[in-house]
Amino acid sequence: MKAGENKLRSKVRALADGVATGLAILSTALVVAPLLIIFGYLVYKGASSLNLDFFTQIPKPEGETGGGMANAIVGSGVVLGLASLIGIPIGIGSGIYLAEFGRGTKLAETVRFTADVLNGVPSIVMGMAVYALVVSPAMPFSALSGGLALGIMMIPTVCRTTEEMLLMVPHAVREAALGLGVPNWRSVLSITVKTASPGIITGCMLAFARVAGETAPLIFTAFGNAFWSISLFRPIAALPLSIYIYANSPYEDQHRQAWAGALVLIILIVAAVSLVRWVTSRGVLKGAS
Amino acid sequence: MSETRISQVKPQPEPGGPERKRSAGAAALETSAVRKYLLSRGNSAIADRGFKWLMILCALSIFGIVVLIATELVKGSHLSWAKFGFDFFYKVFIDPGSKQPNYWDPVNEHFSALPFIYGTLVSSILALLMAVPLAIGVAVFLTEMCPEWLRGPLAFLTELLAAIPSVIYGLWAMFALVPLMREYVNPLAVKLLGWTTLFDDTNPTGLGFLTAGVILAIMILPIISSLTREVMSAVPHSQREAVMALGATRWETIQMAVLRNARIGIVGAVILGLGRALGETMAVTMVIGNSLDIQRSLLANGNSMASVIANQYAEASSDMHLSALTEIGLALFVVTIIVNALARILVWAVTRGAPARVN
How many domains, in total, are found in chain A? Predict the structure, then answer.
């Protein structure tokens, strides 16, 4: 009797194990499926709409076929360039502070925590704050305000990756530099930061890829523009913004353009993320050892 | 700075004793030419201090940004705050003529955030209900069951899901998910779950809370699963071995050793996912339907806090309208800060000691 009970119980346990394994595999499949479906759909829809005009022409008036998104691609470049100018130096600077000067201090703990929390603030709220700060009083919608909003969003990511990469640099390297009588700032910049530079560049690219697809803060900062403009003080088009505007338009041809734009955007982002992945998996700090 | 750095290394007892120390002193005297050369290069103390303060300034600017966002939002919302006070978040204005609730009326300047708070909560909770079991399943599979060669590619794929911009999710949802929901999922939900009265067949568009919830679930999955993976791999191996040694099956090991030890961190991951869902804008705006009412049905059109801002902020009709929208933004800011801080603390409580990873 006892033996039979035990046998039954072990069968139930084995069954539970099998069911759990099955569920885990099923959920993994359910997670990977949407990714493949989205990519497949994007390539299918986007590739058929992509042509040379897309990269060289500006949009045609609504309702007409043809035209491209050249102004949005260039506009995205301008806005992202501005964002990088703002976000990368401040991000790297605060990362250096966290890793080199503030180790173990209360201030550094708080900065790190604030950066993590700032990372979770919705992008649309960033856009509102920048709108209130820059747009309404001084000037109308502009490329500059869009760059500022995206730049602020880059800071936490750049800061935290820089810190982590700097922490991986062995102490002996710093001590060797200081032992040779190199001033501390020199040692930080040309020894520690240089050793960690592949990792830091990786972090910057990650932050770049993340804000490249941001739309919400641009709606009321960069605003979008159907014409050529690279002026920093005027509304400017951006790729994600154009995708949003076109997706909501009633015209079939604009939907087509939106798909093409989405494909271009996703290719850029996936390329950046894959590169990041490749660099980090190769062991970033080869020069350190 | 260099002083403290070197003094962190414990001084080793000199093997040669005082004899050796004296000779070292003599050596220092001999190399005074080197010293002279170094001194002739000028004092780097100013440059060092300047550099340090520059870096501190960068770090402080992160505080500055948070303070700046807060003050701008508070300043921007004072008009609406002065007029509505706390009523803004829960009071319903009943139109005297039609006896219908009138939540959001830019023309007569009656504003209440209630429908948007409701919409945000409903879509986020729906998203969590769908995403959490899947995310934990993926994390369990990847950390405990997956063959080594498959782990890297699968982890990369789930990370890619996080890299897709919100607007592309929205685009896909508008043209692929919405028709799917309209033709198949929504009628099925009405048929099977209609008795709960939560699924009402009044919205033929395929937009609505449920569609927003599905797309949100896909979007927050990667963050929940990658953080869950992180806390699960922080559980010491000895725990797993101990449970296995008692004869547990794999699932029992995962249940008793891994999930139980990591549960606080998993809660943190879920809360972080909630934070993302609350603030998610573009994809939700594109599929939630943008109605200004509160409806009971999960298939009805609605609006979330973020989506109403995205829709109306650039074209706000009056200062009061702008101010009311800013107040919604302020509420969103405060809530996401609290949610994120809570989540970070919970995740830190589990992974403390283990090296951190950027997500």
Answer: 2
Q: The CATH number of the domain where A271 resides is what?
A: 1.10.3720.10
Q: What is the pLDDT of residues A74-111, one digit of tens each?
A: 999 999 999 999 999 999 999 999 999 988 899 999 99
Q: Considering Cα of B162, then B166, then B170, then B172, what sign does the dihedral take?
A: negative
Residue pLDDT, tens place only, A141-189: 889 999 999 999 999 999 999 998 899 889 898 899 888 888 888 899 9
Is the CB of A122 less than 8 angstroms away from the CB of B55?
A: no
Q: How confident is the model at residue A69 (pLDDT cuts 50, 70, 90)?
A: confident
For B113-351, which CATH superfamily applies?
MetI-like (1.10.3720.10)
A79 and A33 in a common domain:
no
User: Smallest CA–CA separation between A180 and chain B, in Å?
Assistant: 10
Pick A118's closest partner by Cβ from B5, B44, B65. B65
CB contact under 8 A, A32 and B68: no
pLDDT at B234 over 90: no
Question: What ranges in chain A are assigned the alpha helix state H?
Answer: 2-49, 52-56, 70-96, 106-119, 123-130, 143-167, 171-179, 184-186, 193-195, 197-212, 216-219, 239-247, 252-281
Do residues A43 and A60 both lie within one domain? no
Check residue B323 and give its pLDDT.
92
Domain match, A14 and A129 both: no
DSSP class of residue B255 equals: I
Tell me which residue in A97, A131, A210 faces B58 most closely, judged by beta carbons.
A97
| Best mutation target, A31, A164, A246, to test chain B (most B CBs within 10 A) | A31
* Whether A28 and A126 share a structural domain: no
- Say whether pLDDT at B357 is over 50: no
- Most A CBs within 10 A among B38, B55, B256, B278, hence the mutation to make, goes to B55
Q: Is A281 exposed, middle or buried (0-12, 13-18, 19+ CB in 10 A)?
A: exposed
Q: Which residues of A touch B127 (CB under 8 A)?
A: none
**In a 3-state reduction of DSSP, which class is residue B106?**
coil
Q: Which domain holds residue A23?
A: 2-49
Residues A16, A70: one domain? no
Same-domain status, A18 and A119: no
Residue A201: which residues within 8 A CB-CB, separation 6 or more? none
Of A24, A215, A219, the CB nearest to B145: A24
